[in-house]
Amino acid sequence: MRARTLVLAAVALAGFTPRAAAAQYVELAPRRGGVRAPVTDPYLKPGDDARLGIPRPEAFARRYEAGANARLGPFPVLIIPALFSDSRTPAIQPDALADALFRGPAPGAALVRFYDELSRGRLRMTGTVLPWVRTAVTLMEAASEVEGHGWIGERMADYVAQAVQRADSLVDYGQFDNDGPDGVPNSADDDGIVDAIAIEYPEVGGSCGGPGPWPHLSAISPGVSTQDRRLNGQPIRVVRYISEGVTDCSGTLVQDPSTIAHELGHTLGLPDDYQSFGGSGYQYRRWNVGCFELMGGGSWGCGTGPKQSGFGPTHMGPLHLSTLGWVEADIIAPGTVNADVTLQPVQSAQGRILKIPLSDDGMEFYLVEYRQRVGFDAALPAEGVLIWHVDPFVGARAIPEGLPWVSPYHLVEADGDNALRKLEAEGGNRGVAADVFTLGSRVDSLTDRTRPSTRDHLGRTTGVAVRDIRIENGVARMRVTTRDRFAVVARTSGALQATTAHETVLRTAGGSAPLTVTTMAGYPLPPGLSVAASGDVIRVAGTPTRAGLQLAALEVRDAAGRTLTEWLS
Question: Going by C-beta distance under 8 Å and a sequence separation of 6 or more, which residues neighbour residue 111?
Fold first, then answer.
């Protein structure tokens, strides 16, 4: 039988054998036996999909585009409660877990209600919880032990595989492969891989100081083949999985939806938005987005200190809502002067977000939303206007000394102390009320001269000003100014895939014709594609003939010598 391994999806491990149950977009920087992992970039890069051999969330350059990772319609989730060989009789029964997460009136069905509220009904989650199965893997083999609590042991992969195999007669795994556009499970447009599966154990998890494995999302390679078949006769496989305990930290109550909500965000293609530095605890994290974002601290709690029991989950911020296709953006055009903008609460049916470009190429920008303390966001430290700084290629920028730590996605903190981008020992936290603009009926402004400012990550002025930010009659109002610039103001595109016809159309503004289009060194157009410019419109079309990751960069120059860069993937 081929050895199964868990593959690392974000960070490198130190001290693990090839069969070790490595990690995920792991909830911390991994370590074992006192050996700390090297600090690495937790964001996936071009080529990681081939290196890891698992489905990766989204191509690097497209992850930040509206609708790039759209997930609409049915989303079935499967939970297999699985005992270790030495587990005691579990305190939580499958019906109780199903009631808590998937069915019944509030406070039941918490996970279904959360994603329905978050997606405003665009994602239709359903859930199935199977009866307990028992594996032949011991707790210590699956969890090991680090500093007195469970971590991820040498036989975690075997535990997952055995759970899947021993539940095979209880379920049709094909009903949980429904990632294609037709909304029909196990049809011709699905990929043959179970979309969302959680293997859950009865012990208290390591994140609570218990002996169980640390809650995580990972992938098992080469995958576990099931007895259920695709239309082409090949087996349905389990590759990515979630693992956590069925109880809360007390070991007596059924789990709340916070952790699994976060991990399901990964199955939808989202990265962790915090970064870990040299250790496993909260004190080793720069949270960047804090408790205002599910993929940051939205399952941990605000302020400082350890994870708060029963907190959240809070909603995703505007970037992930946009990439998933769950909210639309109004885009501020170059050369706008004192435009009056109104934003409804983003959680409402009319809620939209605002996109304000900071750079000429539009790759560095703000997203603005009005968040209220309602529903699952009721535990936020304050309600008001949140402004988010997005810069997908920040890792390629030479940040001058003396400027704050930067990440591809972080909250612009209204108090200007950048605490979300600091470790706790440096004065950092997971979010406080003062991070919110318009706190306490205040009227705020954000310009090149305020603190925080609208300067870009290199410290340069952008000409962007957001003035008179206020809440009036249940809506957010503000005046927005941008400088006149050469920029892409509209884009229609699809993913670049081998042997699939592709077209991207870019419309520019602020430039002088004719436009000259070349490609960036090292990022040429894939063979089979061509590019042409006519007036202020650029069109890329053709059918890529090269397999693998498709990533290209267009460099556009106008007649006045102004340039912009546009990425395709």
Answer: 77, 101, 102, 125, 127, 257, 260, 261, 264
Could you report the per-residue pLDDT of 72-81, keeping only the tens digit for each?
999 999 999 9
What are the φ/ψ torsions at residue 160 (nearest 5 degrees)? -65, -45
Two tokens at 493? 């595109």
Average pLDDT, the chain: 86
Residue 241: both structure tokens together: 């999985």
Which range (239-248, 458-467, 500-509) has the least confidence? 500-509
Give the up-direction half-sphere exposure of residue 53: CA atoms within 13 A in the CB hemisphere: 11
| Closest by Cα among 199, 181, 200 to 191 | 181
316 C-beta neighbours (distance < 10 Å), count: 28
- Residue 1 CA to residue 433 CA, distance in Å, equals 55
pLDDT band of residue 4 (cuts 50, 70, 90) is low
Could you tell me which of 10, 47, 37 has the C-alpha nearest to residue 240? 10
Nearest to 394 by CA among 409, 372, 415, 416: 409
Q: What is the CATH T-level fold of the domain 487-568, as seen in this structure?
A: Immunoglobulin-like (2.60.40)
Q: DSSP assignment, residue 310? A: T
Can you read off the two tokens belonging to residue 349?
A: 């049916």
Bond into 452 cis (ω within 30): yes
Half-sphere exposure in the Cβ direction for 34 (13 Å, CA): 0
Structural domain spans, the chain? 5-9+70-258, 318-481, 487-568
- Residue 177, CA distances (Å) to 172, 219, 232, 534 in order: 10, 16, 14, 43
pLDDT-derived band of residue 145, with 50, 70 and 90 as boundaries? confident
pTM for the complete prediction? 0.80
Handedness of CA 39, 35, 291, 179 (dihedral sign): positive
Q: 110-119 and 94-101 are packed helices; what angle lies between their axes, rounded to 10 degrees? A: 20
The answer to whether residue 408 scores a pLDDT higher than 50 is: yes
Q: Token pair of 474, please?
A: 């249940």
Q: For the chain, how big is the Rg over CA atoms in Å?
A: 24
E strands within 215-361? 216-229, 235-245, 275-276, 285-286, 329-331, 339-343, 353-357
First to last CA, the chain: 37
24-43 pLDDT tens trace:
333 332 222 222 222 223 33
pLDDT, one tens digit per residue, over 484-533 is: 778 787 888 877 788 888 899 998 877 778 999 999 888 899 899 999 99
Burial of 105 (0-12, 13-18, 19+ CB in 10 A): exposed
Give the tokens for residue 4: 């199964």
